[in-house]
Amino acid sequence: MSTMRFENVELKNWKNFVIADVKLANRVFLVGPNATGKSNFLDSLRFLRDLVLEGGGLAKAVETRGGIGKVRSLYARQDTVISIKATVKGINGEGWTYDLAFTHETPKNPRPKVVHEIATRIESNGHEKVVLNRPDAADKSDKERLTQTALQQVTANQNFRELADFFREIAYLHLVPQLLREEQAPRPDAVGQDPYGRDLLDRVRGTTPRNRTARLSRIQKVLKLVVPQLKELGLKIDDHGRPHLQGKFEHWRPHGAFQNETQFSDGTLRFIGLLWALQDKAGPLLLEEPELSLHAAIVRRLAPFIARAQKEGDGRQVILSTHSEDLLMDAGIAAEEMVLIQPAAEGSKIIVGARVRQIVDLMQSGIPASEAVLPRTETRQMTMLDQLAV
């Protein structure tokens, strides 16, 4: 089957969102004011991944997020069921819809339980076939079964394992350079790869030597353009068996000077993490503000750089959050790639740029997303900051 991507996501009572229904392009830019739910939207996709990873599952995925009370929207009232419905498709139109709804067992027992779980196969001709519909007869005779999804069980997901494999390949990156430099271990309760990049060097080491060399060579080629003093980049294992990135920098000495990640700048480390992630042959890549610590000249080139990486690789879907005008200046960004999250009367609402006539008209006339969309992320009270001090 061809590479799949998220085509549509519907959320109900998920954190900031009482109701959300958003169509996703292959490259997505999430924008919105602070604390409106950009990270929480990305987390709904990570949640699907955590259901199927080793050490994960429904109970674990909810627990690592602080429990049902932290996952359920504060604005949920009488209907307190949380649901995520995702449609994923390949380029030929074939794919799946996965619809999961869950809540807690009782007010005194916060353990999550499945309310319904439906997996539907979508053929390239549009025909749909339901291959899983829970609760089923077995669930009704044994309520304990509803504490787990069928998706997370290899004995139960055989008819839709392709979907489980797709969720498993979702990756998220918000590299925190200081955590990488200090060699801090990932959280013991974490599921999957560390989202803050603590395990980046272990992942580099874990790649086959041939693949690792090729990928680092491509990263080195890019870094040479933005870090002129860098001449070489490689992986070195120290005397204690720990992996380190090692860069050779042009120096007054004839043979240059070597530095490892503890001496790299924040921007260099974040850029290396981004470049490594873009080369992964896997499912959707979720990025949190990739512009952080990077020079504006680099940020202005990120959007087309990501588009080229998608074309040269396997077409991996990239969904990123951003506040950056520089990143959104690229004329190649389309209205359907812009997803605007705005505060509403209760929670937040999600709007795709292609559904707003004014945004479409502006962008079709050559106005970049930085001017057509980003001003809509300013709150009404923002101008009051001009008169305040602390």
Short note summarizing the structure:
The chain is α/β, with parallel strands linked by helices and 390 residues long. Helix content is 28%, strand content 27%.
Can you describe what's shown?
With 390 residues, this protein is an alpha/beta fold. Helix content is 28%, strand content 27%. The chain has helices spanning 38-52, 58-63, 68-71, 137-141, 161-168, 177-181, 200-206, 209-226, 266-278, 296-299, 302-312, 357-364, 369-372, and strands spanning 5-14, 17-23, 27-31, 82-89, 95-106, 109-122, 128-134, 171-173, 230-237, 243-249, 257-260, 285-288, 318-321, 338-343, 348-352. The strands form 3 sheets. Strands 2-1-4-5-6-7 form a 6-stranded antiparallel beta sheet. Strands 8-12-13-3-14-15 form a 6-stranded mixed beta sheet, sandwiched between helices. The termini are far apart.
* N- and C-termini, Cα separation: 57 Å
- Counting H and I runs of at least 4 residues, what is the number of helices? 13
Q: What composes the largest sheet?
A: 6 strands, antiparallel
Number of strands: 15
Structure class: alpha/beta
Can you tell me the overall shape?
globular
**Which whole number gives the mean pLDDT?**
93
List low-confidence stretches: none
Radius of gyration: 22 Å
**Succession of helices and strands:** EEEHHHEEEEHHEHHHEEEHEHHEEEHH
Going across the major beta sheet, what is the strand order?
Answer: 2-1-4-5-6-7
Which percent bin holds the helix content?
A: 25-40%
Oligomer: single chain
Approximately what portion of the residues adopt beta-strand conformation? 25-35%
